[in-house]
Amino acid sequence: MDFRILGPLEAVGASGQVAKIPPRERVVLGMLLLRPERTVSVDQLVDAVWDDLPPTTARKQILICVSVLRRLLANVGFAGEIGSRPPGYRLQLGSRDRLDLQDFEALSVAGSAALREDRPGDAMEAFRQALELWRGEPLAGTTSHLLHGAAVALSERWLSVAETYADVRMRLGVRPDLIEDLRLLTASHPLRETLHSRLMRALAQAGRPVEAIEAYNTARRTFAAELGLEPGEELRRLREAILAGRQDAELATLVGVAAD
């Protein structure tokens, strides 16, 4: 069975059947999937479902939610269990069950290990596979302040891996698709300086310094309009280095990237 939280929350059986899970039970399942094989307390589940206004029957209703989840997941072939473990419940995955978050973390760790061992090609492939697991906003379709906070943290993790993936691709040689990917990322996250710096470096490395400076100017206008601020020191130093015609190895040190 596949559990997916890197996008809309889904529980998909081996036959492709998607479990139809009501909103309250989706929140409970989301909390359990964020901490697979670890106990999530009833108090945490109550907070996730009702935020700060739980009814007096909240703990009993959580018991009912878990019972409903057990039945719905069993109907689509879940081989694991949602076990009662004081002070709450634990989702135990079966041997054939998959959770996309676990796969993402495993691939990210493998990519980082490959980098440390100077295997950039293997690192690039591991990071690529990790990023492809994402299908949109994490835990979409759930309503909970706790799950929203977790989704924000997961999105930040995705961006961190996406930046490292871009660094490895630059190390192996800039291709047009990398520049396009970085343009899309900066458009989606216009206030993230580290993405702007990578776009500037990729353009400079590709022999397009004029476009790199224009990318800086775009970032500067955005920061001024949205934050009333100038770009940070790193971005300013990178601009100066590009204008001075510095080489890629030198540019890499300005954005905290290891280069050959």
From TrEMBL:
Keyword Transcription regulation: yes
Signal peptide: none
GO molecular function, one term: DNA binding
DNA-binding region, residues: 1-93
GO biological process: phosphorelay signal transduction system; regulation of DNA-templated transcription
Highest taxon, organism lineage: Bacteria
Cited SUPFAM superfamilies: C-terminal effector domain of the bipartite response regulators, TPR-like
OmpR/PhoB-type domain location: 1-93
Keywords of the record: DNA-binding, Transcription, Transcription regulation
Keyword DNA repair annotated: no
Protein family per UniProt: Belongs to the AfsR/DnrI/RedD regulatory family.
Protein name per its UniProtKB record: OmpR/PhoB-type domain-containing protein
